[in-house]
């Protein structure tokens, strides 16, 4: 007597369908345009004396050209320490945007914005970006923001902020210096 499971064929096809959907979703290329927005996470934080307060980490991303994007990152850590870094990042590959600027101690800050399948993650490989943008206990390396927490932005409003204008001015000055 041969045993057959009448549910095995539908389960088999459902498994194939889910696998194909996962493969299609994974193969969709994320672009700076599709990821434009502000990503925010609120969480409980504390001072050394135990005083509790609410903190918010924030990451804004907005394309400036097909190969560059403005970013503004603000991270909060325990005891009131924070990191603040903004600039124009170059798209260096489909999964990486890179921002470079001089740091201190004769180092170069190279900040990578990595585009994972479900989140941004940041890397500051030599710690030089941390030196110019973070308090004593702040970190940039390994921080993540999930894509699902995005809020829409209005680019025309972002372009009017003092930080955007400063960053664009610095970027244009650097671009002019490189071409001379």
- Number of continuous helical runs: 5
Radius of gyration: 21 Å
Average pLDDT rating: 84
* Low-pLDDT residue spans: 1-27
The description of the largest β-sheet is: 9 strands, antiparallel
Shape: globular
- Total domain modules: 1
Strand content: 35-45%
Strand-and-helix sequence, N→C? HHEEEEEEEHEEHH
What order do the strands of the largest sheet run in, or round the barrel if closed?
8-7-6-5-4-3-2-1-9
Binned, the helix content reads 25-40%
Distance from N terminus to C terminus (CA atoms, Å) equals 84 Å
What keyword list fits this structure?
180 residues, alpha+beta, nine-stranded antiparallel beta sheet, 5 helices, disordered N terminus
Topology:
Layout: H1 8-27, H2 32-35, E1 37-46, E2 52-65, E3 68-76, E4 82-93, E5 96-102, E6 108-115, E7 119-124, H3 128-133, E8 144-146, E9 150-151, H4 155-158, H5 162-179
Antiparallel strand pairs: 1-2, 1-9, 2-3, 3-4, 4-5, 5-6, 6-7, 7-8
Give your account of this protein's structure.
By secondary structure, the chain is α+β, with helices and mostly antiparallel strands. It has one domain. Helices cover 29% and strands 39% of the residues. It has 5 helices and 9 strands; from the N terminus they run ααβββββββαββαα. A 9-stranded antiparallel beta sheet has the order 8-7-6-5-4-3-2-1-9. A hairpin with a 5-residue loop joins β5 (96-102) and β6. It starts with 7 loop residues before the first helix and ends with a helix. The model is unreliable at 1-27 (pLDDT under 50).
Write a brief caption for the model.
The protein has about 180 residues and is α+β, with helices and mostly antiparallel strands.
């Amino acid at each position: 007597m041969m045993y057959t499971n009448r549910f095995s064929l539908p389960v088999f096809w459902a498994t194939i369908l889910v696998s194909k959907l996962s493969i299609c979703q994974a193969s969709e290329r994320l672009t700076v345009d599709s990821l434009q927005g502000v990503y925010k996470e609120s969480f409980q934080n504390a001072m050394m004396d135990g005083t509790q307060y609410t903190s918010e980490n924030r990451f804004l991303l907005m394309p400036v050209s097909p190969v560059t994007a403005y970013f503004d990152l603000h991270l909060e850590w325990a005891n009131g320490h924070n990191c603040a870094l903004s600039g124009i990042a170059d798209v260096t590959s489909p999964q990486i945007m890179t921002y470079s600027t001089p740091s201190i101690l004769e180092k170069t800050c190279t900040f990578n914005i990595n585009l994972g399948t479900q989140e941004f993650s940041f890397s500051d490989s030599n710690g030089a970006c941390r030196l110019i943008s973070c308090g004593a206990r702040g970190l940039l390396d390994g921080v993540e923001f999930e894509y699902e927490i995005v809020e829409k932005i209005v680019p025309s409003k972002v372009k009017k902020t003092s930080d955007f204008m400063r960053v664009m001015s610095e970027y244009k000055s650097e671009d002019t210096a490189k071409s001379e």
